[in-house]
Amino acid sequence: MARRIETYFVPGPAGRLEALLEEPEDGEPRFAAVVCHPHPLHGGTMHNKVVFRLARGLRRAGAVVLRFNFRGVGASEGEHAHMTGEVEDARAALDWLRSRYPWLGFVLAGFSFGARVILTLGCQMAQDQPHPAFLMAAGFPTRLPVAADLLEQCRTPKIFLQSTHDQFGPREELEAAYGKFAAPKSLIWIESEDHFFAGALEELEERAREAALMPVPS
Question: What is the CATH number of the domain that holds 136?
Answer without folding.
Answer: 3.40.50.1820
